[in-house]
Amino acid sequence: DCYDKENKLDSIIDWPEVFKQHAHTVSKTNPFRNQLSASNPFVYDVAQLSNSDKNNKHISILKEDPYLFSRDSSNRDSFASSGDELDIDHLLRKASAGKSGRSKSVSELLDIVDARRFDPDNTASSGQILAADMEWLQNDREAYKMAWLSHRQLARSCLDLDAMSHSPGWAQTQPTDTHVVCKLNHEGGSVQLPDSDIAVHIPEGHVSPGEFQEVGLRAILNPPPSLNHDLSCTVSPLIELTLSNLNTMEAILLEIKIAAEVKKDPFSQVMTEIMGFYSLNKEGPFEKLHNCYIYKDTIQVKLTDLSRVMYTVVAVQVNPIQSLATSVWEYIHRNISIGIYGPKHIHPSFTAVFTVFGHNYIPEKLTVCDIKKGGKSMPPVVFNLWGKHTFLLDKPQDLSVSLISCDPDFEVKMEDQSKEIKEGQLKAGEVVHQQFPFSVLGTGEMHLFTFLVHIKVPNNNLVTQFPITTPDPAPKLTGMTSKPNRLQKRKEIKSAPFLLTPTVKYPKFQDKTLNIISYGVALKTVFRQNKIEYLLEYFKGDTIAFLGEDKVKAIGQTKVKEWYVGVLRRKIGLVHCKNVKVILKEQAIDIADSVLPTRNLLEQIALPFKKLTYIYSLVLSTVSERVYNWKALADVLGYSHMSLDDFSEVPADKESERVAYVVKKLKEDCHANRPRRQFLYELIVALLKLDCQGLVARLTQDTVLLTSAVKLGKCWRELAERLARLTKQQIEAYEVPHQDRSGEVALEMMWKPAYDFLYTWGAHYGDSYRDVLQDLQSALDKMKNPLTKQWRELTGALILVNCMEILRANAFSKKEED
Asked: 718 — phi, psi (to 5°)?
């Protein structure tokens, strides 16, 4: 089983938020308004837009971009907490009428948390989800900065699309670092990096029968400087290869497509050699590999001296003794690859990034770290690949690059139309990018367009040119942001007729008393001075109903113990196995305190979702793809009044789009009625009523892993050592994509490598979600300072998955299913 990971996992990930603000309100509530552009390059543009658009309605809607993870997609975004969980009001209290599209943050990550309760009197109007007053932070710039960054990067679950459609792409792109992890048995196999010509081949018999080899493959875009000089140049990215098992019996093969070919003349053939280089460190030193085989533009390298982390790169070198040439380029045909990157959707003002690669690997996403606005450096932003092109370059020389719009509605400013790529940059082999800001002329309708890329040498001769077509503009969700006129409505209805029959018929949930098979009698009285969530308290002689035969391993007050999941006095929780004597139903005398209806069971086992952190776009996409009857979902959510007419204003050609509409409706209603209503909790209850247990299990695992990563912070390193025995180098490899310019991972960003690791680790279990949760619980319990002593939602999740079987057996009629 192979699992691709975009890390962003996020992926990590930078998760900024876009929202519209009235300038006069912001100037009052934000004492550092004039300097905010240092951390958000688009806040000025959005504010200016607001001044010219004061009559526009500020209706907050939910972000709809389920492009996440390799199994579903490539981006991670819309970080939120359930219900909405861990209120942002802990950071940003009170309401202010000038902000819209706010979501909740995981506020306890910050030391500046103001632990105050939500005040329902301060709830904003229906045109807002949440707004905030920052007067309490006016005298503490660092506190304000931390609060704002946390809110921007960790808490974006809702966006004002109208504001977003006028911004240059902020919040559409998150940092990613693509790599793949695969677990193979003794039969071997091949692992290929997604969207590349890079693969590793594991032969049969590489490991003994019964053992496994976990192979990780990652491409580092910038090659080692030591292999790029006059007589040497790299022609592949730096490949990081990780192995989990060194008890091997066969070598492995690494296959890479290279970006150069030695010229056919005899002198070049003799003087030049393409070879692989190997090192245990990313920076080197690199040793030559002798077991290399080249066929056309592909090299195959045999790796015999294996290590847990290895770095390999392909380079072309000239014999320094016999060669009369001044550059290795004289003996080779050198390919230069160009990637054109930009935001996911174009806007009235956006940036296209021209990127030069010294190898054939052009990633689908590119992190740009040197964005500047007003002379100030901006945080890194990730752009999507719009198009690519490869051409031959005879020698390293200065290149002049121009981007020219073929559409009169768009232009690049005259001073930005031409940029230079220096000869030294090409020799160094590093990734070089230049930014070209586009803007729309006039107030015409936004649309995709084509522009030409021209590349010239110093004598003004054209080396190559190629066209690039932009993506579509940012979509506006009609019916949520603006009302279409009657003619538009009629056209939409004609072009997208609705199917009148549902795809799937779901079983009907029945509220009835549970049929308990097994009971236990308490052998001692247990009452705790400090109450512990999800642990039952009982008197000696109490009869406790067991909701399953499986045991749960979890930490109690001080030690890890085995527990049964039971119910007593209508409360579900864990009871220590040694404190009860198991009896049959016929032996139970007084079971009045153990009676529980299915509705009460369902509502209690879903309680952890009130406090679990989730990614809204992932929840939206997963539910819309795996629920096949929008009407059934609407009914269990309390929207039985909804009909096909409600979709007339929303593009909903497919059943999944109608399901997504229902989920968005729930999200909006929960935001409007917080804290009484909580989105993820209500959604899980509804899915359980539809008997969508596989979907609930998927969401449970995703949210538990994400919440664990957020809670762990820098302690994830200890967990990684316990769960997977990661080496220091492997741990550093997870953190590298999220390091700042100082080479460190900021404390508030430490959850990103933690989630990368947990997601990869959890993927190896396949569908065994119970094992994932139980193994994670056991590992967290054994840490030096167990997180699970205070954070008990993982224990609650274990109770949920252990109760699914009895819920299905009692709440749904088998006759109806048949």
From this structure: -65, -40
